[in-house]
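Worked example 3 (structure in, sequence out).
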């Protein structure tokens, strides 16, 4: 059985992961409206991943005898100034998710909830990958500067991302 503090934190993380799903869908829609179909696809695949993460937390809470408490998902931002702006927001968001995961890791250790600590290690590793991937995309965007051809090339490259 989950301890109350851990259960509350995991339920909060479910909401955070669903917000991530919602945010990346919004980014995908923005890119579609701006005719960046490759960036839109990349964000849609990212959204699918975030939904999968939410369901991993959801299933874990139930598997460990906890209760699910779903709360309202905050409406995400819908407009950005540029491709760079979107990916800067993406990195900032992933860094916030990382902090949230780390906080639950610390809480589960303090509560001596070893099963949750082990469960969370997958997410710790996943966040390293998430941040690294977005940092590399940002570096490419910055290298291209104001060159639209560079963005078109990157749009095409990111559009090849397949769902996991």
């Amino acid at each position: 059985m989950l301890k109350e503090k851990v259960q509350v934190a995991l339920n909060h993380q479910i909401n955070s992961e669903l917000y991530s799903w919602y945010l990346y869908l919004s980014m995908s829609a923005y890119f579609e409206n701006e005719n960046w179909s490759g960036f839109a696809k990349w964000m849609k695949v990212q959204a699918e991943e975030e939904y999968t993460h939410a369901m991993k937390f959801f299933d874990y809470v139930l598997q460990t005898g906890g209760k699910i408490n779903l709360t309202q998902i905050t409406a995400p931002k819908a407009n950005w100034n540029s491709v760079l702006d979107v990916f800067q927001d993406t990195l900032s968001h992933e860094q916030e998710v990382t902090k949230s995961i780390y906080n639950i890791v610390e809480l589960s250790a303090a509560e001596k909830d070893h099963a949750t600590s082990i469960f969370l290690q997958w997410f710790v590793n996943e966040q390293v990958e998430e941040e690294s991937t977005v940092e590399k995309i940002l570096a490419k965007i910055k290298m291209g500067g104001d060159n639209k051809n560079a963005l078109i090339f990157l749009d095409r490259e990111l559009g090849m991302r397949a769902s996991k």
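Notes: The mean pLDDT is 97. Residues 32 and 40 are 6 Å apart (CA to CA).
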